[in-house]
Amino acid sequence: MMRISRVAWLLQVPLIAAFSTSYKAHYAKRVAIIGAGAGGSSTAYHLARYAAEAGISTNITVFERNTYVGGRTTTVQAWNDPLSPAMELGGAIFVEVNHIMMDAMQTFNLSAAGHDVLARLEMPDLGIWNGQEFVLVTKAGGTWWDTAKLLWRYGAAPLWTNRLMKSAVGKFLTMYDEPVFPWKSLSDAIERIGLLDVTGVTGEQYLKANGIGRRFADEVIQASTRVNYASNLAYIHGLETMVCMATSGATAVEGGNWQIFAHMLKSSRANVQLNTTINRISKRKDGSYQVTTSAGDTSVFDDVVLAGPLQYANLAMDPAPKHVPDEIPYTKLYTTLFSSPHRLSPEAFNLGSGAAVPQYVLTTLPLWEDSVDGVGSPGFYSISISDAGTNPHTSPRRFEYIYKIFSPSRVNATFLSHILGQKVSDEEAAHGDVDGTVSWIHHKIWYSYPREYPRVTFEELRLDDGLWYTSGIESFISTMETSALSGKNVARLMRDEWVSGRYKPEGWNQDPAYEVKQVQM
Ligand SMILES: *[C@@H]1O[C@H](CO)[C@@H](O)[C@H](O)[C@H]1NC(C)=O
Ligand SMILES: *[C@@H]1O[C@H](CO)[C@@H](O)[C@H](O)[C@H]1NC(C)=O
Ligand SMILES: *[C@@H]1O[C@H](CO)[C@@H](O)[C@H](O)[C@H]1NC(C)=O
Ligand SMILES: *[C@@H]1O[C@H](CO)[C@@H](O)[C@H](O)[C@H]1NC(C)=O
Q1: For the chain, how many helices (H) and strands (E)?
Q2: Where does residue 11 rank: exposed (0-12), middle (13-18), buried (19+ CB within 10 A)?
Q3: Structural domain harbouring 206
Q4: Whose CA is nearest to atom 13 of ligand 1?
Q5: Whose CA is nearest to atom 12 of ligand 4?
Q6: What's the pLDDT band for 171 if we cut at 50, 70, 90?
Q7: Which residue CA neighbors atom 14 of ligand 1 most closely?
Q8: Pair (225, 293) in one structural domain
Q9: Which of 216, 353, 371, 402 is the most exposed place for a label (fewest CB within 10 A)?
Q10: Which protein residue has the closest C-alpha to ligand 1 atom 5?
């Protein structure tokens, strides 16, 4: 078997089909994917396709410890009502250059979420708050006069930033195609495409070195790194900073972005085991892996893909793989969704009574706090109105706004009372009160993404023979798209190894009883 495939490789003739016919007759490649988020779902989807192209049959099992697919791409129903809008808690949007997400949305015939209600609210679009004042307020579809004011304030900085962003994104996009794709080492790929000097410095250093004015950086770009990655410019690398500025064609799937991953899994025909935690992965003498669930069930696989941050997987690996990913700091983020008939209080934002607070309140640091690592005096990263509509549970029914807050600590009654200018009780802040000031509230705490500190080396993708890791990409760029890209890359590397004839487990084509004996040895 091995010899045939080697020959095929050397001769560069299309023997893949010949190779695989006999291969298929005996055996399907058994693959375990641990994690059904963006990385794991994309691995399953692309692996099924790549393997099918090469005529290799697969038996893919996806283990997911949650009772839902999508991982950090997940929604909750507003007002806990199945007929009300699904609100994104994590990965909320993707953009035009996110080819995997965009293509999947089309392939699976998913529609884009509309924002008709919000368009009708006619409020100022976006404001950047520094804890004292709004340093910038924009209106959707602003006039020439709004543009002129921005030009006066920031000069050519927006234009230069846009060029810088396009150059970085252009380099990144070469990772999708040959000769860079598939890459065996993320560090090498990033060096090859010329992005190491962008990931190796802070956003602050990168912008300064490229002549972007301090004012635009502090007031606008930093507001974006704070809402997207809960980081100030001195604590996030240059590339992730540029990613924050790539917003063109932002979209979301009606009903929740997680549906893309659910469709990917369905299309892969993987066997998806929800509510199943993997506790142990043991390498067997023949090079295959025995995977053990927390309930004590075991099964054996040829390849295992770890598709989530290893440090939170609570997984014993025996023996330790050749490469063990480092433990890295992740951001502990509080995401709060709540509904209220009240708008944000203008007084809480030092505006005159009667003034409208913008729909998106982003934040930045005041000048005198410029070296703070953390939320600083604004106290939160962003507050936005994500949707609005009729609360089906109130009597009489009433129109309410649905807010989303990103903050470094739990949102409490004092804070809610302050921003709404209305008394909110502790009970309401914790659980909501159907006819109260806060009618519904959902608190979510998670490790949402790594702290994107500058770095020039990244985790290995191939931790050992037959053992793969998709999450190293998160410290390069943490988005749904890049996790999906990492899964696609791992799927391709795995398929290529199968085709080129990496080790074959002894007795790989024998009956299942053989495996049992191996385990017991
Ligand atoms: C696929 O693998 C799973 C897990 O090891 C196993 O339970 C199942 O029987 C396999 N299916 C086929 C068709 O071999
Ligand atoms: C796509 O969805 C729309 C409505 O959601 C439906 O009318 C259409 O037939 C679907 N197309 C395909 C190719 O499934
Ligand atoms: C998840 O599995 C546990 C047992 O491991 C069980 O007690 C629990 O009810 C399951 N949850 C759901 C939602 O299926
Ligand atoms: C409420 O939250 C604010 C920060 O938003 C914090 O300063 C305050 O100590 C909290 N109050 C209580 C009682 O926990």
Answers
A1: 18, 19
A2: exposed
A3: 114-251+330-450
A4: 59
A5: 412
A6: very high
A7: 59
A8: no
A9: 353
A10: 299
Q: What is the dihedral of CA 42, 48, 50, 54, to 10 degrees?
A: 170
Instruction: Considering every ligand atom shown, identify the ligand nearest to the alpha carbon of residue 274 and give its number.
Output: 3
How confident is the model over 14-27, as a mean pLDDT?
45
Strands ordered across the beta sheet of 316-318: 298-301, 289-293, 278-283, 316-318
Same domain, 216 and 342: yes
| Shortest-distance Cα residue to atom 9 of ligand 3 | 275
Residue 415 has pLDDT above 60, yes or no: yes
Q: What is the mean pLDDT of residues 487-516?
A: 69
- How close is the Cα of 261 to the center of ligand 2, in Å? 18
- At 149, list the tokens: 């004011």
State residue 142's pLDDT score.
Answer: 66
| 138/258 Cα distance (integer angstroms) | 31
Residues 229 and 275 in one domain: no
* Non-local CB neighbours of 320 within 8 Å, separated by 6+ positions: none
The pLDDT value recorded for residue 241 is 98
Question: Of ligand 4's atoms, which has the minimum distance to the CA of residue 379?
Answer: 5
Residue range 237-248: mean pLDDT, rounded = 95
Q: Using CA atoms, how far apart are residues 236 and 367, in angstroms rounded to an integer?
A: 18
Q: Which atom of ligand 1 is nearest to the CA of 301?
A: 5
Q: Average per-residue pLDDT in the chain? A: 90
pLDDT, tens digit, 9 for 90 and up, residues 284-343: 999 999 999 999 999 999 999 999 999 999 999 999 999 999 999 999 999 999 999 999
Question: Which pLDDT band holds residue 25 (cuts at 50, 70, 90)?
Answer: very low
Q: Mutation test of ligand 4: which of 414, 416, 419, 420 has the most ligand atoms closer than 8 Å to its C-beta?
A: 414
For the CA of 294, the closest atom of ligand 3 is 5
| Within a domain: 86 | no
Cα 110 to averaged position of ligand 2 atoms, centre (Å): 8
| 296 in contact with ligand 3, CB cutoff 6 A | no
Domain boundary among 426, 450, 474: 450
Q: Whose CA is nearest to atom 7 of ligand 3?
A: 275
Distance CA 263, CA 258 (A): 9
- CB-ligand 3 contact for 80 (6 Å cutoff): no
Among 417, 450, 483, the domain-final residue is 450
Residues with CB under 6 A from ligand 1: 28, 30, 59, 61, 299
Contact 505, 286 (CB under 8 A): yes
The arithmetic mean of pLDDT across residues 3-23, rounded, is 36
